TrEMBL record:
<dbReference type="Pfam" id="PF16125">
    <property type="entry name" value="DUF4837"/>
</dbReference>
<protein>
    <recommendedName>
        <fullName>DUF4837 domain-containing protein</fullName>
    </recommendedName>
</protein>
<dbReference type="InterPro" id="IPR032286">
    <property type="entry name" value="DUF4837"/>
</dbReference>
Length: 328
């Protein structure tokens, strides 16, 4: 090989290495995001935050979570003036930015200042336009932030997964829950899974039903209540003989349609109590249409945590439930 060819070859190798390093460097430009689950940074001028725009934001993003015994907000919010939104302040996992002066719009972006991250930009020429964008896109904005937080909670759960269970063998499913949980009851195809917390327990139960067990219609809520009460009587005993978990009669559950593992599901949020005993708490129940296996799969999370806030406990249970995968 001539000296000229050697020089050209060396230059080519260095060029390829330089491009590769540049690409790698660009990939590393974004810092890791940070922040507690369900903590939202709101980048907005002080006067807007203290006025009607701020009120509209709070009505949507600090609205009470469905199915809890006390009002707790969807997100804890921290306001940051745009002038100081730099450096570490930009690293929060969820960011809402309000910009006055541009065309009225809502834009959702990922990994803008850090990763993983979800940023929602709301703009408008006037306060009225901004408020209108927030109100008209409320569901989309909440869903964007919530899905990001669900993913982050699931990522943390995967760091210490419970693996000693027979859910796949008995029910044909996988479910990601932490090692802090234990199998409290396993009877045929019914599972009760529990975790001790400082003031009580968080719980999951999983079981299957015939596909025709629930029929959609005007009586859907009544059907779900009867189902829960029968399962509670059979499997979830209270502190003394003859007591068991039932659905709180004075609080009508909220029912929604949703998707779990790409399958249609009925989501129910409400309160449970114990028949003939002073115990109660929130629950979130999913009845999943598993047509491939000709069954309904039911999975529920419920918490007993008296005298403390329960939003984060129920959020963890929902994140676990949404990790469910059903085999064919």
């Amino acid at each position: 090989m001539t000296p000229m060819k050697q020089t050209l070859l060396l230059f080519s190798v260095l060029l390829v290495m330089s491009c590769g390093n540049k690409k790698s460097s660009n990939q590393k430009l974004l810092s890791d995001s940070s922040g507690n689950i369900n903590n939202l940074s709101v980048v907005i001028e002080n006067n807007l935050w203290e006025g009607n725009v701020g009120e509209a934001i709070r009505e949507v993003l600090a609205a009470p979570v469905d199915g809890l015994p006390q009002d707790e907000p969807l997100f804890n919010m921290s306001q940051i003036p745009p002038a100081v939104f730099s450096g570490f302040a930009t690293h929060n996992r969820t960011v809402l930015k309000i910009e006055k002066g541009g065309e009225a719009s809502v834009k959702i972006a990922s990994d803008v200042y850090a990763q993983p991250q979800k940023v929602v930009l709301v703009s408008g020429k006037t306060d009225t336009e901004i408020i209108q964008q927030i109100q008209e896109n409320a569901q989309k904005i909440v869903a964007a932030f919530k899905s990001e937080e669900i993913k982050e909670k699931q990522r943390r759960i995967k760091l210490s997964l419970h693996k000693n269970n027979t859910l796949k063998e008995k029910l044909g499913i996988t479910l990601n829950f932490p090692t802090a949980y234990r199998i409290a009851k396993e009877e045929d195809k019914f599972y009760w899974i529990r975790k001790d917390i400082a003031t009580g327990t968080t719980n999951l139960m999983v079981f299957e039903l015939p596909f025709s067990a629930i029929k959609k219609g005007d009586s859907l809520v009544d059907q779900i209540i009867k189902l829960r009460d029968s399962i509670g009587q059979a499997h979830i005993p209270g502190p003394t003989e003859g007591t068991y978990m039932i659905t709180e009669e004075a609080y009508a559950p909220a029912v929604f349609e949703t998707i779990i593992d790409n399958k249609p599901a009925i989501e129910t949020k409400g309160l449970w109590d114990v028949k003939n005993a002073f115990m109660s708490g929130p629950f979130i129940n999913y009845i999943i249409e598993d047509k491939i296996n000709n069954r309904l799969l039911v999975i529920e999370g419920f918490a007993f945590a008296p005298s403390v806030e329960k939003r984060d406990y129920m959020f963890e249970l929902e994140a676990i439930i949404r990790s469910l995968k059903i085999g064919d």
